[in-house]
Amino acid sequence: MTERLNGQNGQAPTVLVVGGTSGINRGIAEGFARDGARVAVVSRSEDKVRATLEALRALGAEAEGFAADVRDPEALQQGVAGLCDRWGPLDVVVSGAAGNFPALASGMSANAFRSVVEIDLLGSFHVLQAVYPHLRRPSSVIQISAPQAVLPMVGQSHVCAAKAGVDMLTRTLAQEWGPEGIRVNSVLPGPIAHTEGMKRLAPSTALQEQVTASVPLKRLGQAEDIYRACRFLASADADFITGAVLPVDGGWSLSGASRVGDALGQALKG
Ligand code: NAP
Ligand code: COA
Known about the structure:
SDR_fam, alpha/beta, oxidoreductase, 9 helices, Rossmann fold
């Protein structure tokens, strides 16, 4: 399927996954690696970057990466420029770094709210600005959003505000960059098994069971589900799709996510 991605004719596409060293984003990085792309990853931890590069190379991919915090625009700009000096322009960028913890707005410090908005929303802006001069025309940018962007969830005011902003960034930049052939879309994952995000939102077995029961398709997602959606959005099959927010969530963002927020609220109120 590699030839259907927006790579240069006959060449492996170059994919950058920001936040690609664990969970869903790592699954996305590994999926692209398995499908023959050159894959670069970025996150804060040098150790996580190193371990991920080993895993990607073990899959047979050419892989690079660097450690940077998405709250540091200069570090991102330098890292991306260095990568693209060596590899040339980027065909696909996945922006998925995020932070989350459950907390009621009434008890959360301003700094707690700010930290999530700075990572998820401002960080996404920094990523998109840093990659913009290095994107191939045409290319595909994919932001990893969340059901909290479209449904309010108790205990998630910071994430709801930040991810709604991420999707508006997607839509706005789709308009600004569309004339250059850069497509910008969001993928909105549902609850994904074995991830940090799920552990934080549903720390008990009882809550995990409630989450699964609240998904219309009655299962948790896998990172592979999200990768397949990213592969589609990166491919020529999606070359008339931009500014879309694509739920890949078993229907969870129709209402189930809000019901889980009610349970989370009960747990937080003790
Ligand atoms: P995760 O394993 O914690 O992944 C987060 C990634 O982002 C890690 O690679 C982390 O690495 C990096 N990161 C965090 N803060 C960063 C920062 N300030 N600068 C640079 N990198 C940073 O989480 P996940 O649960 O798989 O979630 C991944 C994405 O999916 C997020 O965007 C999340 O909002 C979204 N999502 C998740 C779920 C779910 O069920 N898990 C559902 C809906 C949406 P370092 O620690 O090395 O920085
Ligand atoms: N409840 C309430 N406030 C919390 C909190 C919690 N569970 N966890 C952190 N905070 C607050 C801190 O107390 C601090 O506020 P303060 O200065 O007023 O005390 C603020 O949030 C920032 O915390 P800090 O630990 O300094 O931030 P950081 O930049 O090192 O880490 C986080 C960012 C907090 C988002 C951290 O959880 C993280 O790095 N997460 C990445 C992984 C992740 O969340 N994965 C799931 C993705 S869906």
